Amino acid sequence: MNGVPPNPARRSERSRQAILAAALDLCTEKGYARTTVEAIAARAGVSKKTIYRWWPSKGAILLEAINNAVVMTTPFPDTGDLAADLCTQMHAVVKLLTNPPLGPAYAGILTEIQYDDELCRAVQEEFINPRVEAAKIRLRRAREQGELPPDADLDLAVELFYGPLYYRHTLRRPPYTRERIVTLIAHVMRSLGAA
């Protein structure tokens, strides 16, 4: 023993990461509905009190776990070719959100937000709005570079590009392939009056 007390911040971060991993693992194994805060606490080796000190619900835990994974794996590229950048980003989103461990968790959250106003607000503020804004920034640059017409409605464009992905995910239909995403992008670009 060196007499140095353990760093509580490092211990807390280790516990936080264990909780996020346990929540995703359980959701993959048992499904969203059968995953409980009690089971997450037991799997992570922490108390329920620790969990409730950091998150108000199971949905909030899983939202943070998803958000962390998506931030690291689906940045919005800008190569100067809007269609190619959209294809790269949208394909990454489809892959991430339709495969374990994130797919089952995200599907459960999308169901839960119909009944949980606090979780719905968190999903909008922490997950959806930042990604919509990132897409609009990329679309705005494309508009400035002449890839989209000056009057293109960027809010509507984001919904046209991403709405079909959410439709298929929410209704548990087969996800779009890369080829189908290319077709979707071409249709939306034409509808926006792209050159």
Automatic annotation (TrEMBL):
Where in the chain is the DNA-binding region found? 36-55
Give this protein's Gene Ontology molecular function annotations: DNA-binding transcription factor activity; transcription cis-regulatory region binding
The keyword Transcription regulation is annotated on this UniProt entry: yes
Give UniProt keywords alphabetically.
Answer: DNA-binding, Transcription, Transcription regulation
- UniProt cross-references to PROSITE patterns, sorted A to Z: HTH_TETR_2
Q: Pfam families, from UniProt?
A: TetR_C_11, TetR_N
Q: Which residues form the HTH tetR-type domain?
A: 13-73
Per its record, how is this protein called by name? TetR/AcrR family transcriptional regulator
* Lineage of the organism: Bacteria, Bacillati, Actinomycetota, Actinomycetes, Kitasatosporales
